[in-house]
Structures are given as structure tokens and as C-alpha cells.
Amino acid sequence: MATQAQIKKGYIDYVLTHNEQPKSVYSFVKKLKITEADFYAFYGSFESIEKNIWFELTVETIDEIQKQELWEQYSSREKILSFFYSYVELLKSQRSFVIYSLKKHGIRLSTPEVLSGVKPIFENFAEQIINEGLESGELAERKFFSKRYKDALWVQYAFILNFWVNDDSNGFEKTDEAIERGIQVTFDLFQRSPIDNLFEYGKFLSQNGKLKEKMGF
User: Which regions span the lipid bilayer (predicted)?
Assistant: First the structure.
């Protein structure tokens, strides 16, 4: 009986050789010398293979960085940076497939179907880190907006993937710079700023309007 790894490897080999999916499950399994029942025991379609590959790459990255000795000492900003640096490093081993998959589906700010399994995993991971930052005071608690922080990080995810796919610099050094700049700017926006102080001061004045009147202002 075929293994899941055998089917996945066979699919990757096929699409990278032919730059398209197999014409049918029948022709694909015949080439692998397995049965259709073997295929459907693990996957419902060729699309599900690609979704699973992306899912596994994301979960593997999260599992590995959380095993780092200093992980618990990292700030929220450092944890997200660690994810993206490690994620891109892992994607290098599958770069040809990543380029094929993303260019076929089209990477954009809205989620392509092939990444539909990745988004909830990433957002759950990001939300945990954001909540840690909110609790520690590293990040600013803002009514309505705090819940959207994870959405901003998903936008960064899409941007970084697209940037890396098109990066032709030595060692993908431009992607490293894009990660650094993008995450730093994003987390700067998540942190307290003079604007927060201004809003709080305005709120204070509004709540104490009657006190001002009694004092003759």
C-alpha cells in the first residue's frame, strides 16, 4: 500500500516536471503504481495535497521555533520575527514547489484557496503572541483595533511570501531585510505612541467636563 509521503513526493515531482497538475487521479496513480483507493485513503483531490503541504510547512515551523531554548524569553516582536526567518528558511527546501503553487493560485492580500488551511493556524499562533504582548504591556490595548492586530500580521505573511518568491538577491538577503523592516514597522504601530496619549487625554477631558465648569474654565 502507498504511503502519504510517497503520494506527496510523486505529486511534487510531477508538477515540477510538467508545470501542471496530472490530468486525472487515474493517470497519476497508474504512474506511481498504486490504486485509486490508496490515493483517496489520504487525499480527496490534488488540491488537498497542496493544502496539506502548506499546512505541514507552517506547523513544522511553529513547532521548531517553540522548542528554542530562549523562546519564552523573547518579546512578542522577537517571536514573530523568529517565525518569519525560520519559515523562509524552511521554504528554501521546497522553493520550486512554493513558486509553482503560489504562481498557479496567485498570492495576494486575500487568501488563495491553497493557503486556506494555513490562515487559521497562523492567526491562532499570532493571536497567542499578541495576547502575551498585550498582557505584558509591550503592545497597546486599543478598543476595536487590538483584535485586528492578527489581520495585520496576516497581511505581512502574504507580503513576505510574495517578496521571497520574486527575490533574486544572494542568499535572499533582501527578503531578510523585508522581514525586518515589515515586522518592525508593524509592531511599532502595535505599541503605545503619542497618539494614544492624546486620545486618552481627550477622553479624560471629556469625562471631566463638569469638573472644568465648576473650576471656571
Answer: none
Q: How far apart are the C-alpha atoms of 52 and 185, rounded to whole Å?
A: 31
Taking only the tens place, the pLDDT of each residue in 166-217 is: 999 999 999 999 999 999 999 998 986 545 455 554 554 566 655 445 544 4
Domain count across the chain = 2
The verdict on 186 and 172 lying in the same domain is: yes
52 and 34 share one domain:
no
Owning domain of residue 157? 48-202
Are 103 and 18 part of one and the same domain? no
Cα dihedral angle (102, 106, 112, 114), rounded to 10 degrees? -30
Burial of 6 per CB tally in 10 Å (0-12, 13-18, 19+): middle
The 3-class secondary structure across 73-113, one letter per residue, is HCCHHHHHHHHHHHHHHHHHHHHHHHHHHHHHHCCCCCCCH
